[in-house]
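[SOLVED] Predicted holo structure with zinc ion

Edit: marking solved, answer below. Original request kept for reference. I posted the sequence and ligand SMILES and asked for the 3D complex as structure tokens.
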Amino acid sequence: MKTATKLLCYPLTLAAVVISVLLLPSMASAQPVAKPKIRMYLFNNGEINGLDASEFNFKKEEVKSTDFIVTSELIVHPKGILLWESGSVPDAKLPADGSPYKEGVSIVTKSLASQMAAIGYSYKDVKYFAMSHLHSDHSGNANSLVHAKWIVQKADRDMMFAGKAQRVMDASLFSELKNADTILLNNEDYDVFGDGSVRIISAPGHTPGHQVLLVNLADTGPVLLAGDLYHLPEEIATGRTPTFEFDPATSAVSRAKVQALVKKTGAKMWIGHDKATHAGLNFSPKFYE
Ligand SMILES: [Zn+2]
């Protein structure tokens, strides 16, 4: 039986190979240009717990939770690697024995570098670095990305180096970026790899140069990394913004712009700090393609 099956299979396999080789050139020319193979890893950079709902202009009973997750994403594109966000605490502050590090309302268990190392990457591999905005819970390891091309909106960069204290900003976390090779954007969108697959979308308001990221994945589909366009999902229906919003009226315009983009593209929107959203997601070493 075995021999018979082999004998039967061999010519069939050979025929299949011959047919596919003959068909290949014509099929290739008839098909649209293949989308670049992009892989997106999601990192857990800790939690921020026990925040007061009133900071977000809500009563306690109006929101499900004010406990936040802190996240960052590594986007591996054939033309280079983009790191989006950088955690809330510099890796160097984490205890060497792996025990959790606590600072105020923040708690961090794993360094960003160790999560990148677990999938074979280091900060040095990062070609492009961008944060949604200048706040300290996004710029924890910004100084480790000084070698990368920094993509930032001019309005945020101006505030970062104006020498003036700002709420939720720690200038020591990003001081090295001042002399980084910088792609400076003027409240504009930016196509990171030039093929439409990874786009920075200007969405000011939370800070003067807040931005979000639209990643077009071949299998997963488009994903909108919303940064702090919203903090609590309850902000979507109510239109409320936190007490520390830079310019709520501008935020409303940005939210409308991003919601229209989400509708047009069918993107899934991930609110950066929303625990409920991230509870259903695959963190690194798993990935999205
Ligand atoms: Zn934040």
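OP edit: Residues 135, 137-138, 228, 273 surround zinc ion (CB under 6 Å). Thanks to everyone who chimed in.
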